[in-house]
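Appendix B. Raw example, untouched.
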Amino acid sequence: MHLTTEDLLALRDGEGAPEHRRHLLQCPECGRRLESMGELRSELRGLPALEPPVGAWERILAVQRRQQRARRVLVWAAAAAALLVMAVTAGLVLRPEATTPSRFPDARFNDIADLMNASRELEMVLRSPSLRSPVLRPAEAARIVALEDQLALIDTQLVTAGDGLPRSSALVLWSDRVELLDELVRARGRFAGEGKFRHATDL
């Protein structure tokens, strides 16, 4: 049995087991292989050094950045999909009763700035302590969680798209966000206090 390439490399580097060294002294074929390995090593060392093409590192870094952006988009997409599943499971398609008054009867504004202002106003209302009921029935809590989940889904879409979102799509998302916030205000107002409805406009 002849020595393996790993055995020969170890012997070439001054290492290796004593029995392998004895075998090398007695085996002409292994000796020739070791000699060929030494010649190949010398030839490789004699090759001229090659410089990378101009701009090679910049292209590599650009590809790496694109891959990182793609991974971030996939993460956001996975999060959005998970939130959508949660929303559907929680019965998010249900809407509040038509008899409940809305702070914004028609949230389909024509200006994104108006929608953003309405969104900020509703978020301020939601932070009111009077809308924080200490105890909620399971159905009430599920309704509020479902609304918050869909709101998080819209926020994810807005953050993911960034400045590249078309105006028409941005109008739809911001309009949906205002409607959801309005529903959340009404839901919390309905469940606040001792079972008595309190609308945000009464705060």
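End of appendix B.
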